């Protein structure tokens, strides 16, 4: 199986279903909630964390095992591996409903692969072994989490705030492209990693020629003024 990687958007408007309530399902639910998915969880028993989320109203909980008909109107289905008959029913109903379906660890009953995901603000990195070794994908994710720390969220938040000012200052695509590559090839990210925010901001302004003060630095300056 050679998957084509994509990132789904608009899940807050799509009916998503997770079947199962173990810690494995908890990780999938967490990822979907981070995307503001419109979510239903079907399981007799939930982990303590899932139960807390259900009681907070973060998703709809159906407190029983899967039954045929549960997938009506669904767009996206993730199911923990069950007995062979249940797995087969989930897969067949999902196909009938034209769903994206993944019965975990049962490759013949999947029409998409759910990768191991790292998030830092706007940055999303997904790792998949195409079902060959999911445990290795987890270890890869853990290794990458150490490399891609919270500085990436700050960095990308800054760059996102620059987009409209850059369009106004540099109306042609060629000009903007040149400036953006000067920014991303600079030491700004490393300065943020070292918590040298003032220096990072000054370098960003010098390279981009756009005077946009990132919120982190503005807050720090305000505190200095108050102090």
Please explain how this structure is put together.
By secondary structure, the chain is an alpha/beta fold. The chain has three domains: 104 residues, 3-Layer(aba) Sandwich (Rossmann fold), CATH 3.40.50.720; 34 residues, Double Stranded RNA Binding Domain, CATH 3.30.160; 67 residues, no CATH class. It is 48% helix and 14% strand. It contains nine helices and seven strands. Strands 3-2-1-4-5 form a five-stranded parallel beta sheet, sandwiched between helices. Strand 4, helix 3 and strand 5 form a beta-alpha-beta unit. The chain is elongated and about 65 Å long.
Q: Shape from CA axes?
A: elongated
Poorly predicted regions: none
How many E-type strands?
7
| CATH superfamily membership of the largest domain | NAD(P)-binding Rossmann-like Domain
N→C terminal distance: 60 Å
> Which CATH class of the largest domain applies here?
Alpha Beta
Q: CATH topology of the largest domain, anyone?
A: Rossmann fold
Secondary structure tally, helices: 9
The biggest sheet amounts to: 5 strands, parallel
> How many structural domains does the protein architecture include?
3
Order of SSEs, N→C? EHEHEEHEEEHHHHHH
Strand order of the largest sheet: 3-2-1-4-5
Overall pLDDT score: 91
Over all CA atoms, what is the radius of gyration?
22 Å
Query: What is the CATH architecture assignment of the largest domain?
Result: 3-Layer(aba) Sandwich
User: Roughly how much helix do the residues carry, as a percent range?
Assistant: 40-55%
Strand content range: 5-15%
